[in-house]
Amino acid sequence: MEVVNALGRRKAAVARVFVSEGQGKIVINGRDLEVYFPSTILQYVVKQPLNKLGVAEKYDIKVNLDGGGFKGQAEALRLAIARALVKINPEDKTALKQEGFMTRDARVVERKKPGQPKARKHFQFSKR
Question: Rounded CA gap, 99 and 52, in Å?
Answer without folding.
Answer: 9
